[in-house]
Each structure stands twice: as structure tokens, then as C-alpha cells.
Automatic annotation (TrEMBL):
<dbReference type="Pfam" id="PF03301">
    <property type="entry name" value="Trp_dioxygenase"/>
</dbReference>
<comment type="subunit">
    <text>Homotetramer.</text>
</comment>
<keyword id="KW-0223">Dioxygenase</keyword>
<protein>
    <recommendedName>
        <fullName>Tryptophan 2,3-dioxygenase</fullName>
        <ecNumber>1.13.11.11</ecNumber>
    </recommendedName>
</protein>
<comment type="pathway">
    <text>Amino-acid degradation; L-tryptophan degradation via kynurenine pathway; L-kynurenine from L-tryptophan: step 1/2.</text>
</comment>
<keyword id="KW-0408">Iron</keyword>
<feature type="binding site" description="axial binding residue">
    <location>
        <position position="241"/>
    </location>
    <ligand>
        <name>heme</name>
    </ligand>
</feature>
<keyword id="KW-0823">Tryptophan catabolism</keyword>
<dbReference type="GO" id="GO:0046872">
    <property type="term" value="F:metal ion binding"/>
</dbReference>
<dbReference type="GO" id="GO:0019442">
    <property type="term" value="P:L-tryptophan catabolic process to acetyl-CoA"/>
</dbReference>
<keyword id="KW-0560">Oxidoreductase</keyword>
<feature type="binding site">
    <location>
        <position position="255"/>
    </location>
    <ligand>
        <name>substrate</name>
    </ligand>
</feature>
<dbReference type="InterPro" id="IPR037217">
    <property type="entry name" value="Trp/Indoleamine_2_3_dOase-like"/>
</dbReference>
<keyword id="KW-0479">Metal-binding</keyword>
<feature type="compositionally biased region" description="Polar residues">
    <location>
        <begin position="1"/>
        <end position="18"/>
    </location>
</feature>
<keyword id="KW-0349">Heme</keyword>
<dbReference type="GO" id="GO:0004833">
    <property type="term" value="F:L-tryptophan 2,3-dioxygenase activity"/>
</dbReference>
């Protein structure tokens, strides 16, 4: 190699190769904490299929966390009458819900024999005990104080859930905005007990009917459609979960103590943001 070529290749190495030399942990590790994240897989059985079950569940927990963040961003923006910021956060959450739902793929065809190989090792553990999923439901208006009970032993989780129980849901913020914009949202809806499940209202249905019968490109009609996309994707998550459960365990009782599929069926038929769906019959 001539000195000239050597110089050129040394220079290329210096300019094109990533840095290798760090005094402590890498800046990537400091930010992502990949070492922590990839050592959280404490398997309970020798079954090779348990890893993907655990990691899929952990991945879904991370998506729940991102989605809660987006919906809280949207709720706070609505409170400030900042609809564009709210819609941007909701639109991000739609793509995240798509990714969340796609993560059913590795578990969607689980057979009862495969699931049985590690099911016993789960003990009484069940996704029903997911606090982040419960925060998602609370933001959608599915409030229930009894859902705090399983978390009594975890003070931070319990405090976060209790706060979320008493805060307005995303839908409460939407309805308050509609009222501020002059739509006839009844006082009893606006002043409802926030810790209770949102109950559908004929008057709210009439508001959405009015909005959907007007200019479809208007800010509030578009907000309604974005919320409908969110509702549809949550409904899809619930139904994908239901079908995966039916395939993996038939009508056996759940590890969390419920009737299993029969209990999940009742949960899966519920509409998120109910009047956004029922109003469609009147437009
Ligand atoms: C194919 C594997 C799965 C089966 C067979 C299954 C089964 C069940 C069953 C039977 C229930 C009802 C409660 C109970 O008695 O346990 C339940 C609830 C639940 N599961 Fe799963 N599950 C599976 C995967 C997952 C995954 C990967 C997640 C992600 C976090 C998850 C999250 C949930 C949630 C959030 C609930 C509560 C739903 C609600 O409150 O409406 N499940 N699951």
C-alpha cells in the first residue's frame, strides 16, 4: 500500500466509522437503558415459547405507556382549547395503536397445548392486573374505583391510578370543549361524577349528529372522526385479544379468576366514545 493510499484509508476509517471509545457506558445505553430493558425477561418455565409471550406482553405495556402519554397530551391541549395539538397527539396515537395491534401477531395462533406449557407458571397473573391498560380505559371514560383494588400493594401505581380516576377523561375534555363552543351538552354531563363510568346521553348524541350533518371539514367534525379512529382501534385490540384467548384456552377460566372468554366477550362489545357511533344512525 502506498503512503498515499494508507493516508486515504486511515482518513476514511476516521470519518466513516462510529466512535468505539467511551469512558463509561455508551451514550445510547444512558438514553435507552437497553441493558435494563433486555434483562427484564425473568422466565418462569423451561418452555421455549414463554419468551415471546412475556416479551409481547412487555411490548404491549410499553405501547400502553406511549398511548396514555398521547391521550394525556390531547386532554390537556383540549382543556386549553388547542385543538390542533390535541389532534396531532391523537393522530400519533392512531399509528401507535396500529403498532400495538400488530404486536398480536406472534401470539395470535397460540394453541392450547403450547399455552399450557407455561400457563401454570403464570399463577394468578393476568393482563387484567395491568395498571397502564386501566389508565387507558380511564382516559376513554371507562372509570371504575374497584379497578384500583388489585394495586393496593403498589403505592406508586395506586396513586397514579387514583389521580387518573378523579381526572376528566379525554372524552370529558372533548365534551367540555363542545360546550364552550356553544353546543348543547347538558349540565349533568359536564358536572358528572368523574370517578364513575361515562354513561351515554341522548343530548350528546344529538350534538354529534348536528356536527356530522354540517361541514365535514370543520375542526370539530374532524376531531370526532379522529376519536372514532381511536375508538375503532381500541375495539380491535379487545377483539384480537378475545380471538387469541379463544384459540389459546377455549372456554376455560382465566388465570385472573374470571370466566375467561365469556367475560372478555362482554368487555369487547362495548363501544368507545358511544355517541360517536350511535349518532351515525341519525345523520
Ligand atoms: C394469548 C394469550 C392470552 C390469553 C389466553 C389471555 C387471557 C386473558 C383472560 C382470560 C382475561 C380475563 C381475566 C382473567 O380471568 O385472567 C384477560 C384479560 C386481560 N388481558 Fe389477556 N390474555 C392473553 C394475552 C394478553 C396480552 C399479551 C396482554 C397484553 C398486555 C393481555 C392483556 C390483558 C388485559 C389488559 C386484560 C383485561 C381486559 C379488561 O379489563 O377488559 N392479555 N386475558
Amino acid at each position: 500500500m502506498s503512503p498515499q493510499t494508507r493516508d486515504a484509508s486511515t482518513e476514511a476509517t476516521e470519518t466513516e466509522s462510529p466512535n468505539l471509545d467511551f469512558a463509561g457506558t455508551t451514550p445510547y445505553e444512558d438514553y435507552v437503558q437497553a441493558d435494563v430493558l433486555t434483562h427484564l425477561q425473568h422466565l418462569r418455565s423451561d418452555d421455549p415459547g414463554e419468551m415471546v409471550f412475556l416479551v409481547t406482553t412487555q411490548v404491549m405495556e410499553l405501547w400502553f405507556t406511549v398511548i396514555v402519554h398521547e391521550w394525556e397530551t390531547a386532554a390537556h391541549a383540549l382543556r386549553r382549547d388547542d385543538v390542533p395539538v390535541a389532534v396531532a397527539a391523537l393522530k400519533r396515537s392512531i399509528r401507535e395503536l396500529d403498532a400495538l395491534n400488530a404486536s398480536w401477531r406472534p401470539l395470535a395462533q397460540l394453541t392450547p397445548a403450547q399455552f399450557n406449557s407455561y400457563r401454570g407458571a403464570l399463577g394468578e397473573g393476568s393482563g387484567f392486573q395491568s395498571a397502564m391498560y386501566r389508565r387507558m380505559e380511564f382516559l376513554l371514560g371507562e372509570k371504575s374505583a374497584s379497578m384500583l383494588v388489585p394495586h393496593r400493594g403498589a403505592p406508586r401505581v395506586h396513586a397514579e391510578l387514583e389521580k387518573a380516576l378523579h381526572e376528566p377523561s379525554l372524552y370529558d375534555e372533548v365534551l367540555a370543549l363542545l360546550a364552550r363552543r356553544g353546543y348543547a351538552v347538558p349540565r349533568e354531563v359536564l358536572e358528572r361524577d368523574l370517578a364513575k363510568k361515562y354513561e351515554p346521553s341522548d343530548a350528546v348524541e344529538a350534538v354529534w349528529t348536528e356536527l356530522y350533518s354540517g361541514d365535514e371539514s370543520g375542526e370539530l367534525a374532524r376531531l370526532g372522526e379522529t376519536l372514532t379512529d381511536v375508538g375503532e382501534l381500541v375495539w380491535r385490540w379487545r377483539n384480537d385479544h378475545l380471538v387469541a384467548t379463544r384459540r389459546a384456552m377455549g372456554s376455560k377460566t382465566g388465570t385472573g379468576g374470571s370466566a375467561g372468554v365469556a367475560w372478555l366477550e362482554k368487555r369487547a362489545v362495548k363501544n368507545v366514545f358511544p355517541e360517536l357511533w350511535t349518532a351515525r344512525s341519525h345523520v
